[in-house]
Amino acid sequence: MIDNRIVIIDGNSLINRAYYALPPLITKEGQYTNALYGFITMLLKIYDDYDPEYIGVAFDLKAPTFRHKEFTDYKLGRKKMLPELAQQLEPLKKVLDAMNIYRVEIEGFEADDLIGTLSNYCQKREMECLIVTGDRDALQLASKTTKILITKKGISNLAIYDDAQVMEEYQVTPLQFIDVKGLMGDKSDNIPGVPGIGEKTAIKLINQFGSVEELIKNTHEITSSKVREKIEAHIDDIVLSKRLATIITEVPVEIDIDHLKRKDVNYQEIIELFKEYEFNSLINRFSNKEVQEVQEVSADSYVIIQNIDQLEAAKKKLMDSEVIAINTIDYGSDRITDGLLAITLATSDEEVYVIDFRDTNDGKIIETLKEILEDEKTSIICHDAKEKIIHFSTYDINIQGITFDTMIGEYLIDPAKSSYSLLDLSLLYFNERITDIDELKGKGKQAIKIIDIDKDQLYKSLYQQVRAVQKLTPLIQEKIKDLNLERLFYEVELPLASVLASMELVGIKVDQNILLSLEKEFGEKINQLTSEIYTLAETEFNINSPKQLGEVLFDKLGLPPIKKTKTGYSTNAEVLDKLMDRHEIIGKIVEYRQLTKLKSTYVDGLLKIINSTTGRIHSSFNQTVTTTGRISSTEPNLQNIPVRLEMGRQLRKVFIAEEGYTLVDADYSQIELRVLADISEDKNLLDAFEKNQDIHTRTASEIFNVQMDEVTSSMRSSAKAVNFGIVYGISDFGLGENLNISRAKAKEYIESYLDKYQGVKRYMEEIVASAKANGYVLTLLNRRRYLPEIHSSNYNVRSFGERMAMNTPIQGTAADIIKIAMVKVHKNLKKNGLSSRLILQVHDELIVEALQEETEKAAEILKNSMEEAMELKAKLKVDLSTGSSWYEAK
Fold this sequence. Notes:
This protein is an alpha/beta fold. It folds into six domains: 202 residues, Rossmann fold; 72 residues, DNA polymerase, domain 1 (Orthogonal Bundle), CATH 1.10.150; 193 residues, 2-Layer Sandwich (Nucleotidyltransferase, domain 5); 110 residues, Up-down Bundle (Taq DNA Polymerase, Chain T, domain 4), CATH 1.20.1060.10; 182 residues, 2-Layer Sandwich (Alpha-Beta Plaits); 74 residues, no CATH class. 50% of the residues lie in helices and 13% in strands. It is built from 37 helices and 27 strands. Helix 18 packs across helix 21, helix 30 crosses helix 33 and helix 32 crosses helix 33.
């Protein structure tokens, strides 16, 4: 802590900045928190960077100030604070109170005046004063001891001004900054100033005369007759404006600086508030010493097993235990081929055993572990079951009896969390901080490998984690029961963890030669496009720089600018699409962007992640990421291969079947529209699927009032956009953009659709009403998504909430169905004794790598398992194909 340093924060200014700097954050209860979160993170950054001895936050109060009394139009016309921001002020004050940060607020005076008075108090006592604000008005307070920290680029950066810096940047002293304001006025505060006098002219005049008082006395010396006339016509306004712009530094109040002395945080209270506002990452910030540590782990809290005799002695206790909790840690390098570093096993009566595989090379230990963990009577609980299955597979241990996973359980309870780590859950449920292994490793240059972590610290962490699993399990189980999520958890998500583990372990084979060929082909094409773009632009420039590209397109080539950003012209995909017919260069740039992304992300990216041992790519399938329940994948993200482009489709040639195998590809036919038909019970939709009609042709027939055989390809395309748009709650504006038609015409299409599909219309109205009443929507399996946005007074945010209310039951149910199908496919392939294996899931598509002599049987199992995944009124249908590569199979 730096003695004699005080930080004074302009509360209203900073929370306002934070609100507009961050995207909306909303709790499940509908409380907006983005400004609150931004303010707190900035506050913590100030603690880190400046470590002041004293700190206070100044706020405006609602009562009128002397300025309002003197000038009734003061701040007149200023927009009222948005409700989404206003509702965050009281929570902020609660947080500040819990952090024991003094709030400076007095009726009749603005926060600026209180800040000015405090800074004056500090200056007289030669205390260093730092004022944090987004308002340049505070620059008038700058001095050798008082620095103004102005927020820049949202709230992440601060520009620091003392008196010298103000002089350097504005060519006036801090006090003269008031005179400048007196001349130019301030629209935001409705301070009049002199109409037509801007900042440059005001600075020039104050440099010449020194102050507005001297300027008023010597107007005859103003060289510009126009400026002189303006000044002379508004002398009263100038005097008033300076007075209004002057921050009072002698508010008649007694200052007790000890009130601002930094005090200990009320950690219990702050953590409860952070839980309420769902700031899990901020809870971690206060978790080093501030929250209750878990019970101290001593050497006799666990048993270290180093030989087979010790494990045999523990075996009976483990196998007799009602439940075994397990935790594992690997070497942190290759999760597929590297072994385990250490594990913990805990019995129901809290006996904890640690096995460090660095010290135990006895194969008999593995055999005994296999016997314990594969026993059909063994019930196992853990956190992140998929990871545990992968870890033990290295030792040919196939865990069978996982009965609970705390990570998946918490995900179903609250699918919007950013983290489901044991550290976060322990803090959330128990206010207890367990030792974090990543923390033990350290950061940056100081970081160490896991194998170099002190053993006692490592064992302590593993012990705490396995005990956390034991404590969390009954609490999360109860919540799952209360929310009617038991079927979804026990029949879908938990068994799915084993399926995903199997898929990751098997991986998918890639043809490295095709990749290298594409690398060369794409590289040559990119070079060719670069040359053609330079020729068309008649100059060389950085095509990847939006700024340089904007200058070429709009300044040099004279194309009409569609959209401007703070940094210049926008050159995003939407802008380029609107300019496509204006110049030949646009098409080249679009193709260049597509190719460079494909090359860097997929071609170069895939070459880097081919497993040197297996020769396959082992993508990670993420079960607890999306709020809709869909599975995502990383390294590589197979969901995002741009297959609408021929270049993107070419990438599918890279993914091939192992020698002696064939890829069997199955894709649900219009699963989301079938789910919509089931949920809405719309007669027309159900009838179309019952008759096995082309749904888009049927919809076109309904919308355009023609017979199905009279539907043109253009009509069908429009109907297809409407069908899928309806599923995603599309607006007339959005549909118009997609189809390149007028908003009025798009509205006509949507109204015609809803007129013909009354069941869908009724569903949309009822699900939005339900979401507003309950704050959430459900899938057919009760997967829950909270929608606090739906109560927003902001039209765009509320509309987003309404679209999600319509879409989530459909998309979420489709996600549930594909997961059920995956579990069935995996189970049925095994049940039939096949060597074929499920290896890939992308959106509504599953791929099985089938032994060639098993192809027919595997295809039958794949198709039947998918079509029987869920009984819908519009029966599920699957399209099936085979090939030696993903490209052929698709």
